[in-house]
Amino acid sequence: MTDAGIGNLAQQAVEKAIKAALAANAVEFPFTHDLEHLRDVAKNAGIELPDTLDGIEDLTPFAPAERYGSEAPLALDREQAMRLAGASISWARTVVDEATGRVSGSG
């Protein structure tokens, strides 16, 4: 798979994780693929992203590149992309569980 494809999938994982955390906390969010903007929306709602998600903005350009045929960034740090995707899902799971009163890992 190409860097553009992997970057797009990692971007999607982070985007959907942030949106899940926002939705679970009844926070409205815009239709956007801009991860920095979504992080700001979360922060303004009192939902802090952990330091493990520093650098998510590097994935934003991969969303339109793969989806809309625009030019992809030249290179992707695949290890960082996979780390950010995994960390975002773990973080979102905790936030959603807390917001819904579920015990983490119960379903």
What does this molecule look like?
The chain is mainly alpha-helical and 107 residues long. 58% of the residues lie in helices and 0% in strands. The longest helix has 23 residues. It is globular and about 40 Å long. The model has no long low-confidence stretch (mean pLDDT 90).
Tell me the layout of helices and strands.
Blueprint: H1 3-24, H2 35-44, H3 62-68, H4 78-100
Helix pairs in contact: 1-2, 1-3, 1-4
Q: Which characteristics define this entry?
A:
mainly alpha; 107 residues; 0% strand
Globular, elongated, flat, extended or rod-shaped: what is the shape? globular
Category from helices, strands and their pairing: mainly alpha
**Kindly state the mean pLDDT as a whole number?**
90
pLDDT < 50 runs, ≥5 residues: none
How many strands appear in the DSSP assignment? 0
Task: Offer a quick outline of the entry.
With 107 residues, the chain is an all-alpha fold. The chain has helices at 3-24, 35-44, 62-68, 78-100. The protein has four helices and no strands.
